[in-house]
Structures
1.
Amino acid sequence: MTTPSATPRRPGAATHVLRATDLGAEAIREVLADAAAIKQDPRSASESLRGRSLVMLFEKPSLRTRVSFEIGMSRLGGTAVYLDHREERLGRRESIADYARNLERWCDAIVGRVHEHATLEALAAWSRVPVINALSEKFHPCQALADFMTLIEQGRDPSTLRLAFVGDGNNVCQSLMETAAILGSSFLAVTPPSCRPDPQILAECRSLAARSGGEVACSDSIESIAGVDAVYADAWISMGEPDSAAKRQALEPYRVDARAMEIAGPSALFMHCLPAHRGEEVLDEVIDSPASVVFDQAENRLHAQNALLRRLLSLPPRIEVKMRRRRDLAGSRTASETTRDS
Ligand code: CP
Ligand code: NVA
């Protein structure tokens, strides 16, 4: 049985979250439970990250991810700094290693949205503060956390859930598949043969599912979504990807319309990471229907990410007390400096 590869890290390095396997089942369940608690009582978390800071570097556009991380961090009492790398990719002005070794001196975590997953791996290899994947071409783990939070809110139990992703089997599909496999869900990727998930990631997810009691399958037939709990769609052409008439044509039979939702059944939810391309991967009749939970998913980005940030950045109480004592004594020393030499 293959063991899914977690993100490589140097000894003593921070916990990075570049994909769901970096968290694992127990941590994901804890993050989802904390996210629900924060959503219910936001004030309970309002001081959790006071004095902490986040640097967010984006090589691609964003609405949900940027706003939910920025507002989320401020709700936790911390600060977020946005770095626009849409014009200049990471690694061009200075090496990624040097970039990481600068950032780690100022901030407590790095959030990155990148063209190449390898960029995040390089940042993570050099950063002593956690690196969080805010979307790469391979994974979108924060989206999947919000999506499972939404499914649980809708009364679905991940261990019995049947989730169908319809469309292009790239980043969003692969993170959903990985999270589903970890949590014991049944996951079906319904794609044209040319848009299947990455074979290695698929094999890793099958191995995870074998251990969790879940199931991971692929199909090229829209009829195979009969009886699922939720139908999930994403863009046909992802950010940074060249447009392709051939790809659009291959994806035409995978548009989620009222007929597809009829096949899924009357209790199926409709999900989408957004932004939606209405008239392409989904029609208004579906995304604006009562089955659609897309704006709950968008809202839950905030709560799920805040729970993740609390997990990665909150200090154990013993260290927190020690820090306060040292701050009282030394006045100007920063939280991160104190933590590192604790
Ligand atoms: N779903 C999502 O990540 O949205 P943005 O691209 O707007 O951040
Ligand atoms: N697959 C899409 C997801 C957007 C949130 C993209 O990468 O553009």
2.
Amino acid sequence: MVRRRQLYEGKAKVIFEGPEPDTVVAYFKDDATAFNNQKKGTITGKGVINNSISEFLMMRLSEIGVPTHFIRRLNMREQLLRKVEIIPVEVVVRNVVAGSLAKRFGLEEGSALPRSIVEFYYKNDELNDPMILEEHITAFGWANHTELDEIMSLALRINDFMSGLFRGIGIRLVDFKVEFGRLWEDDQLRVILADEISPDSCRLWDVKTNEKLDKDRFRRDMEGVEEAYQEVARRLGILPEAAHLREAVGPHLVE
Ligand code: TMP
């Protein structure tokens, strides 16, 4: 057993000191929370599935040139990451009206937006992650103008790429949240994609039935939470069982 020094415990992950300098290890828990910790529960197997889904998406994004903190998956629940200074801004990209956007403007969930919307929230549980403007981000020094431009362009590239990837497996990418971090690379401070991308941080609807395949099932006390996470992994071709059932491992195209 490797003993690792714990650096931080979040709601869905624990971060440990990594085995090499400038690395950390993220351990994915089965714990789930919603509405800033007011609702708590467990989604059995979520940690294992999110570890693999996030690995898969980060690797595909890195292949198209999106810099990420992901180095490699270590085991069923842990991944090795480059240590970054997290920028305390949650970046939400929306393609379809849902969640807090529907609530805020009294809109019905499900209409496609004429163009993607990018929103920013200040990552602060005590304040309940308030929505913020670019002005707040630069005025309070959470990121400078150059970093913010980079964040915006990365968020939109991530959205375009992931929308297509999910569409290919019969899933509509309704919205998602990403976080970024900064690190020194070749004497330059760079912004890279951090945290995780998984059904915890995305809204994923089946294209044909509009069935929810994400954490909204937990937030809204719906049945089949575990199965929804498994279904996303299965369609991406990364469930261990799916690998045995089918010889080819990889996304399975859905018409
Ligand atoms: P929202 O509609 O509740 O603002 O959520 C937008 C997206 O961001 C949705 O895909 C879920 C994700 N999200 C998080 O990952 N963490 C959060 O704390 C919240 C509020 C949303």
